[in-house]
Design a protein that fits this description.
RRM domain-containing protein; Nucleotide-bd_a/b_plait_sf; two-stranded antiparallel sheet; RRM_dom; signal; RNA binding; about 15% strand; Alpha-Beta Plaits
Length: about 260
């Protein structure tokens, strides 16, 4: 069955494209993919106006559901029981975009920065998550302290030691790069609607997975996924932690990835 999705549902794609929509399926065909560039969870950027995205979606939308499910299996993301047709089509869309290198081209690091704070926002997800937290709480004073401390740590420490010591300590912790000495990583904070399949597919981008356990919340729309993963080599585990530990997932959650024995 092909699907039709109204513009109001498509408006949710920037928040849910990596987690797959959980609402009821609509009869007919999915349409209206024209969307402004949006960043999904896991920092995967999709420009829904891009010709290659439209072309791929039209290709997937024209397929019968049994062919969509077959391609999902071929791409390593088999459909879960109970997934709606739109979930399956969108999952296949993002999976194929990822494998084509589309996401990687969108998230290349900048070559130069106007300040150390700008560098930290791009290269230290924990710093960005901390700054975004204060901004979302309308605590602009603490957000400004974060920026100033990253840019001028010595002067800012003297200036804000009294009154903002907790903020300064939080910045120090966010700037520390965890050193991973084990291929076993425990994680929490993946959006609940991603489910085990998309958590597995996302982690597998860093390297071969030896084992994975995922705890999915009873209410995926409001909870988060947690669990444990063991990679085949240390470099993959380190890359996953470097990329995602502290990353802001939106909706008030941040990813936590840390080593365990």
């Amino acid at each position: 069955m092909k699907l039709v999705v109204s513009c109001s549902v498509l408006a949710l794609l920037p928040c849910l494209a990596s987690a797959w929509l959980s609402g009821p399926a609509f009869p007919g065909r999915v349409s209206g993919l024209a969307r402004p560039r949006a960043k999904t969870w896991l920092q995967f950027t999709i420009d829904y106006d891009a010709p290659e995205v439209k072309e791929l979606f039209e290709e997937i939308n024209a397929k019968e559901m049994d062919e969509v499910e077959e391609q999902m299996i071929e791409n390593g993301v088999p459909a879960r029981p109970g997934m709606s047709d739109i979930d399956k089509r969108l999952m296949l869309l993002e999976t194929r975009l990822r494998k084509s290198g589309y996401g990687g081209k969108q998230q290349e690091s900048k070559k130069s920065y106007s300040s150390e704070f700008e560098r930290a926002i791009y290269e230290r997800p924990a710093v960005k998550a901390l700054f975004d937290k204060y901004m979302s709480e309308a605590d602009h004073a603490s957000a400004n302290v974060v920026a100033e401390y990253v840019n001028e740590p010595v002067n800012a420490r003297v200036k804000y030691e009294v009154g903002y010591a907790a903020v300064l300590d939080a910045v120090d912790n966010a700037l520390v790069e965890p050193t991973i000495e084990s291929t076993k990583i425990k994680f929490s904070g993946f959006p609940g609607m991603m489910g085990e399949d998309m958590v597995r597919a996302s982690l597998a981008e860093f390297g071969e997975i030896k084992s994975l356990s995922v705890q999915v919340p009873d209410d995926p729309s409001s909870g988060t996924c947690s669990g444990q993963v063991e990679f085949d080599d240390l470099a993959a585990a380190q890359a996953a932690v470097d990329k995602w530990n502290g990353a802001d997932m939106g909706m008030g959650s941040a990813l936590v990835l840390e080593m365990y024995e």
